[in-house]
Amino acid sequence: MTDQAAVEKLKAKFPGSVLEVKEFRGELTLTVKAEDIVAICTFCKKELGYTMLADLAGLDLSAMGVAGPRFQVVYNIYNIKAKQRLRLKAPVEERGPRIDTVSGVWGSANWLERECWDLMGISFNNHPDLRRILMPDDWVGHPLRKDYPVQGPDREPYQGRQI
Questions:
Q1: pLDDT (tens digit, 9 = 90+) per residue, 125-135?
Q2: Kind of pairing, strands 98-100 and 123-125?
Q3: So where are the chain's domains?
Q4: Which residues pair with 56 in a beta bridge?
Q5: Quick count: other Cβ atoms within 10 Å of Cβ 7?
Q6: CB distance 87 to 113 below 8 Å
Q7: How many other β-carbons are positioned within 10 Å of the β-carbon of residue 83?
Q8: Is the pTM higher than 0.85?
Q9: What is the pLDDT of residues 18-72, one digit of tens each?
């Protein structure tokens, strides 16, 4: 099955959930509704053969002047047999950013979602163990957000490491 055939099957199965399809340099990216992410990912794995979640990341679009939701969760999935990649993006609102966990679809999502929550502040509903993974437990804030203060009255500017 080609990438385009997978997209057509997704659009047929979830007609109102596929918001946008883009191709750039041979890579397909689908923007999908966040509320359908578990069903879409399950379909991608079981019906389309994307058995590997290669990466999951959060994006903060606030500094880019993009209209719409501030955050996106990006899923890079891979069909090992067909050697095909597909990128799914799910927009997430700024106020109380939340999306359902896909850790029941791909086990690797467990740690990737924890990292996304820790650094971006996007929470994953029904996650089995959503707690900090990179920052200390008492850390305040989420350092990959564009509005995170990197210096200020209570912080010294980063001086870099002297070698």
A1: 999 999 999 98
A2: parallel
A3: 3-98
A4: 75
A5: 17
A6: no
A7: 7
A8: yes
A9: 999 999 998 999 999 999 999 999 999 999 999 999 999 999 998 888 888 999 9
- H-helix or E-strand spanning residue 41: helix 37-46
- The two structure tokens encoding residue 17: 């959930």
Using alpha carbons, list the distances in angstroms from residue 124 to 80, 98, 113, 115: 26, 6, 7, 11
Q: What is the pLDDT of residue 161?
A: 42
- The CATH class that applies to domain 3-98 reads alpha beta
Tell me the two tokens of residue 107: 């086990």
Q: How far lies 75's CA from each of 21, 96, 104, 151, in Å?
A: 14, 20, 14, 31
pLDDT, average across residues 132-144: 89
**Token code pair at residue 118:** 């820790």
- Phi first, then psi, for residue 158 (nearest 5°) are -65, 125
DSSP one-letter string for 78-90: EETTTTEEEEEEE
The β-bridge partners of 72 are: 59, 91
